[in-house]
Amino acid sequence: MRILAVADTESKYLYDYYTPGKLEGFDLILACGDLSRSYLEFLVDASRCTVLYVRGNHDDSYSTDPPQGCICVEDTVYNFKGIRILGLGGSHRYREGANMFTEKQMAKRIRKLRFKLWRSGGFDILMTHSPARRLNDFDSLSHRGFECFNDLLEKYKPRYFVHGHIHKNYGMNIPQRTEHGETTVINACDYCIFEY
């Protein structure tokens, strides 16, 4: 299965310099937050495939005006053709905002998913906006990862962890792919293509 992951910035390659057929051949698109509604709707139309999304810390308007044709997977385990995808959007709370959480609040969201996780037998892809703590994150509160995501990775050992929030222009050594135990970690900022 060919998957396109996107986050944070509307890719000039995919959007501004789009040519017919460029978005064909994908089975699934994972949108990891902080993308405009019009961009996500464009991806749906141009690719003609399923677009799943979680909200980023700047996506407050999605609760009243969600992107059309896309599926929000916040706080659920979504099964796409046998692939179980756990969605947890938002970032650390560094100011007021609907999609910002303390560590304690994010851990509570995960605890509420216990039954869904048990019933689904775990998950194959963890899809978030923020990274995990000490895994592609920074020390500043606004770009700190969640410790409770590490607990999910250790317990369920998903094949992929796809996140956004850490823009490539934040530093020269920001990796797009890293390994964490049995999990491949993908920073979807701009875009990344991978096979499942």
- The averaged pLDDT comes out at 95
Radius of gyration over alpha carbons? 15 Å
How many strand segments? 13
Order of helix and strand elements from N to C terminus: EHEHEEEEEEHHEHEEEE
Query: What CATH architecture would you give?
Result: 4-Layer Sandwich
* CATH homologous superfamily title: Metallo-dependent phosphatases
Largest sheet: 6 strands, mixed
Question: What coarse outline follows from CA principal-axis ratios?
Answer: globular
- Any idea of the CATH class? Alpha Beta
Strand content: 25-35%
Continuous helix count:
5
Describe what you observe in this structure.
The structure is a single chain. It is built from 5 helices and 13 strands. It is an alpha/beta fold and about 200 residues long. The chain has a single domain, classed as Metallo-dependent phosphatases (Purple Acid Phosphatase, chain A, domain 2), CATH 3.60.21.10. The strands form 3 sheets. A 6-stranded mixed β-sheet has the order 5-6-9-10-12-11, with helices on one face. A 5-stranded mixed β-sheet has the order 4-3-2-1-13, covered by helices on one side. Strands 7-8 form a two-stranded parallel sheet. It is globular and about 45 Å long.
Summarize the structure.
By secondary structure, the chain is an alpha/beta fold.
Give descriptors for this structure.
196 residues; alpha/beta; Purple Acid Phosphatase, chain A, domain 2; six-stranded mixed sheet; five-stranded mixed sheet; 21% helix
Please specify the SSE layout and strand pairing.
Layout: E1 2-7, H1 12-16, E2 28-31, H2 37-47, E3 50-53, E4 71-72, E5 76-80, E6 83-88, E7 91-92, E8 100-101, H3 103-111, H4 114-120, E9 125-128, H5 147-156, E10 160-163, E11 177-180, E12 183-187, E13 190-195
Parallel strand pairs: 1-2, 2-3, 3-4, 6-9, 7-8, 9-10, 10-12
Antiparallel strand pairs: 1-13, 5-6, 11-12
